[in-house]
Design goal:
Blueprint: H1 4-17, E1 26-27, H2 33-42, H3 49-54, H4 66-76, H5 86-98, H6 110-119, H7 131-146, E2 153-154, H8 170-175, H9 180-196, H10 205-214, H11 223-230, H12 235-247, E3 262-269, E4 274-279, E5 287-289, E6 295-298, E7 304-308, H13 315-320, E8 322-326, E9 329-333, E10 338-344, E11 349-352, E12 361-366, H14 368-381, E13 400-406, H15 410-420, E14 436-438, E15 451-453, E16 459-461, E17 470-472, E18 475-476, E19 488-489, E20 498-504, E21 507-514, E22 529-532, E23 535-536, E24 548-549, E25 564-569, E26 574-579, E27 584-586, E28 607-612, E29 617-623, E30 626-632, H16 646-654, H17 662-675
Parallel strand pairs: 1-2, 3-9, 15-21
Antiparallel strand pairs: 3-4, 3-11, 4-7, 5-6, 6-7, 8-9, 10-11, 10-12, 12-13, 14-16, 16-19, 17-18, 17-20, 20-21, 22-23, 22-24, 25-28, 26-27, 26-29, 29-30
Helix pairs in contact: 5-6, 5-7, 10-12, 14-15, 16-17
Length: about 675
């Protein structure tokens, strides 16, 4: 099996569709034959997409995609990269785009196109073989949702949203109907639809699809999108996709290109007063000046920003949405007649959230046109039902407050929302794509992320549409688990200490329990950084000196000043640091802490921190065989050339073309002198 071209395409597709450039933007992985050709040229790939996938597929054999699944498993171990299935899924989208362009077969005959693409002829890769591909789509969606908006907002439908007659191919179809040119038209179309409905937003997907067919500029949509709007089998997927894009529309008729740092404009409630906050997925600069006189001011060292100079939230701004741009950033809030707030532990106030979270207390503000729908949902799903309030001085005019809204059952809540539709569709609980374990009391996270204290086992979270059937340690659970969209505690099961295997909804989840944490033996000869002359040496070594510093102690070596910190991107082929005093060493990426995902606001771990304890320098990273150079408090080199500095010179000259400016040029010039010594 030749996996090199497949791996090249995996990296290219992740960069094209799931990089941080898509932060805050909905991602549609549209790939047809022309787009595949453009990607091949853009990333300089030697082998075409379909050919790269053909080399690792076994048509006609049981489990034709087992080698891809093995590659995915090996790639995902300890990595935050996208699941290693992107090239195969891209081919599944290519097959979907061909369905409407073949005059010899019915447009609905998806599997004939897919088999012809990867096996060379019809009838080899059948619907029975495709179940594994559908599961790959769910794994990709689950991975993307875990990143929140950092890898783009997910538009892959959840299992419960895929029509039954398209239970397997619906994921690929959902990505095949909307080109990039169509996306650039949608903000203008949404603006027209909102005006036609007197500001009520968002509209149900069915209403948007009907409106798109009748819009006087519908001819500007791509031919494939127009056909999908008319086709009875495609239309349900188009409706769901339009509804999802409308839910996150920021209210502006202009399209904000991906790659622009994009923050969320949040409603803040504190001291009986509404206000605004901006939140970026990661801290940006200390502040920004925006058009119209507004400004962003960073709150401490968080990713939250105060918004100065913007009129406080009112009926008009909440219904119409807000978009502010300036200095290369954009912050926005989608148009909506609902505001859902929960307690923000980081800021000790209430801030708006995108979706209801089962089990949490919410404060709901509803405009007059949405209040009736909210009350219908509360009647069916809330426990207990709160009394509405409308005479509070800080409420927007005509709006209603529902003070303490708790939904204990996500399934009942989703069913109630889908009955009333309207603005509530945008705030239904987030989709769950696969079974997972969450919570629990980890014993020794530095050894294992799957070892829990006996009696502190994790909770089981089932995917949407789950049957509840499960096998725990070989025993079928009778009765089945209650699949109601909330975590299912495992600790009441009285599991004995040891290894446990839980099989549920096609997923196998393994974990272990113990009565106590295992003892960690310190090495006889600890390895650390020798301290001498008030500084820590650059390279760790066995205990040849009594004065060794390790871990956090490194920050105390030297003058006692706090170490300076720079950020490095993860997953580089190689990361080096070259200092101004002639030292160079490799930087290893630290593992993500096991408790990271349990933080109330889990930060992204796309970067990792490096303490700069030498006299400053440059971080050199090799990615896709190209070097980059990032400054890390550099100073002009301060040593006399000599042969002992050749490792430093080799590192600098290897990346000579990556940097720029006088400081970097002085590094390169001195490195050339050292190379001649």
């Amino acid at each position: 099996m030749d996996f090199a071209p497949y791996a090249d395409w995996q990296r290219a597709l992740e960069e094209a569709f799931f990089s941080p450039d898509w932060d805050g933007h909905p991602v549609v992985m549209y790939v047809d034959d022309p787009v595949a050709g453009q990607l091949q040229e853009r990333f300089r790939l030697a082998v075409p997409l379909a050919e790269a996938v053909r080399r690792v597929v076994r048509p006609g054999e049981p489990g034709p995609y087992r080698d891809i699944e093995r590659y995915e498993a090996s790639k995902s171990a300890g990595s935050e990269d996208a699941p290693g299935v992107l090239p195969l899924l891209a081919c599944s989208v290519v097959a979907a785009t061909r369905m409407a362009h073949d005059g010899n077969r019915r447009a609905s005959n998806y599997h004939s196109h897919f088999s012809e693409l990867l096996a060379g002829r019809d009838g080899v890769l059948t619907s029975a073989d495709y179940a594994a591909v559908a599961e790959m789509w769910q794994r990709l969606a689950s991975w993307q949702v875990q990143w929140s908006s950092y890898r783009g907002l997910c538009t892959i439908p959840s299992p419960g949203d895929v029509p039954r007659h398209q239970a397997r191919i619906g994921y690929a179809l959902s990505q095949a109907v909307l080109r990039g040119t169509d996306r650039q038209l949608l903000p203008k179309f949404f603006d027209v639809m909102r005006a036609r409905n007197k500001g009520a937003w968002p509209q149900p997907g069915a209403a948007l699809a009907q409106g798109a067919r009748l819009w006087d500029q519908a001819a500007k949509f791509s031919l494939a999108f127009q056909k999908a709007l008319e086709h009875p089998e495609f239309r349900p997927l188009v409706e769901r996709l339009l509804g999802r894009l409308a839910d996150v529309w920021d209210g502006s008729p202009q399209y904000v290109a991906h790659g622009t740092p994009r923050g969320e404009l949040l409603v803040r409630f504190e001291n009986r007063r509404l206000g605004w906050l901006a939140r970026f997925p990661r801290p940006q600069g200390a502040g920004y000046q925006l058009v119209g006189g507004a400004a962003l001011r960073q709150l401490g060292e968080t990713n939250y920003y105060a918004v100065d100079g913007l009129e406080l939230p009112a009926d008009r701004s909440l219904r119409a949405g807000v978009q502010l741009t300036g200095e290369g950033v954009a912050v926005s809030r989608p148009a909506s007649s609902l505001v859902v707030l929960t307690q923000n532990e980081s800021l000790d106030c209430r801030t708006s959230v995108d979706r209801f979270v089962p089990g949490e207390a919410h404060m709901v503000l509803a405009a007059p046109d949405a209040a009736r729908d909210v009350e219908a949902v509360l009647q069916k799903a809330a426990s207990p039902r709160p009394e509405p309030r409308s005479s509070l001085s800080w409420l927007p005019r005509g709006w209603v407050l529902y003070p303490r809204v708790v939904f204990e059952d996500a399934v009942t809540l989703k069913e109630a929302i889908r009955e009333v539709k309207g603005a509530l569709l945008a705030v239904q609980p987030a989709p769950q794509f696969k079974a997972a374990l969450q919570g629990g009391l980890l014993l020794a996270p530095q050894l294992s992320r799957k070892l829990y204290l006996a009696g502190g086992e994790p909770d089981l979270v089932l995917p949407d549409g789950a049957s509840g059937e499960a096998v725990l340690d070989g025993q079928h659970q009778r009765p089945p688990f209650q699949a109601r969209g909330v975590p299912i505690p495992l600790w009441p099961r009285g599991l004995e200490p040891g290894d446990h295997v839980l099989e549920a909804e096609g997923s196998t989840l393994a974990f272990a329990t113990a009565d106590g944490a295992p003892g960690l033996v310190e090495p006889e000869q600890p390895v650390g950084f020798a301290a001498g002359g008030g500084e820590a040496e650059a390279f760790a070594s066995p205990g040849r000196s009594a004065d060794l510093v390790r871990g956090a102690g490194l920050g105390r070596a030297g003058s006692g000043a706090a170490p300076r910190v720079v950020l490095c991107r993860r997953r580089a082929q190689e990361t080096l640091f070259v200092s101004s005093d002639g030292r160079a060493w490799r930087i290893a990426e630290p593992a993500t802490p096991s408790w990271w995902s349990r933080l109330p606001q889990a930060p992204s771990d796309y970067h990792f921190e490096v303490d700069v304890r030498a006299s400053g320098g440059w971080v050199l990273q090799l990615r896709q065989d190209e070097w980059s150079a990032e400054p890390a408090y550099p100073q002009a080199p301060s040593f006399t050339p000599g042969p002992e500095y050749r490792p430093w010179a080799d590192a600098v000259l290897g990346a000579a073309g990556a940097g720029g400016g006088e400081l970097w040029d002085s590094f390169v010039e001195l490195a050339r002198e050292v190379a001649q010594c």
